[in-house]
């Protein structure tokens, strides 16, 4: 004979049903940063500025000299000249000889190694030069890795602002500048790192 405990239902043997808890709503996706493009006059012609909009302005992702093969292509709808007001002020002051260090928000895209090399450029003072080997040493790299430093400098998307023009050969030669050796010489002369008689 089968017996049952008081209060139990002999016809069921399932776990009690839990109350339904609705799933939390998914967080809204952050809007994609808008790419913008502008230009700035310079002694070389119009510079192409590319950036991404931030809450209070624009972070510069690229500054290209006229005729540079790697100049980024940005769709025309992304053009927004007004967002580059700070960049234009600082570039105008630089070319006028009133500014020796940029303070623009930057957001270049690169590998961790490239970003490390580009950031090291910020520590090369206005009016001075350093060599590829010296820059590699500052980064704690071996002389064998100097070529990798040179390649990273060649990929620098922020010409002028990240001053790869201040890096020269150990023998003093002006080589390896994406904007052209003649522009590198002009910039170094403008900054007082190269005597005008040698240009």
Low-confidence stretches: 2-12, 74-78
Q: Mind summarizing the main beta sheet?
A: 3 strands, antiparallel
Give the structural class. alpha+beta
Assembly of the depicted chains: single chain
The Rg value, from CA coordinates, equals: 28 Å
Q: What share of the residues lie within helices? A: 10-25%
Order of helices and strands: EEEHHEHHEH
- Work out the number of β strands: 5
Q: Biggest sheet, strands in spatial order?
A: 1-2-3
Overall pLDDT level:
81
Distance between the termini: 112 Å
Note the beta-strand portion: 5-15%
> Which word captures the global form?
globular
Structure annotation, total helices: 5
Short synopsis of the structure:
With 199 residues, the protein is an alpha+beta fold. The chain contains 5 helices and 5 strands; from the N terminus they run E-E-E-H-H-E-H-H-E-H.
Describe the structure.
With 199 residues, this protein is α+β, with helices and mostly antiparallel strands. 24% of the residues lie in helices and 13% in strands. It has helices at residues 85-95, 112-121, 132-138, 146-154, 181-190, and strands spanning 35-40, 47-54, 57-64, 130-131, 167-168. The chain has a 3-stranded antiparallel beta sheet with strand order 1-2-3. A two-stranded parallel ribbon has the order 4-5. The radius of gyration is 28 Å and the shape is globular. The relative contact order is 0.12.
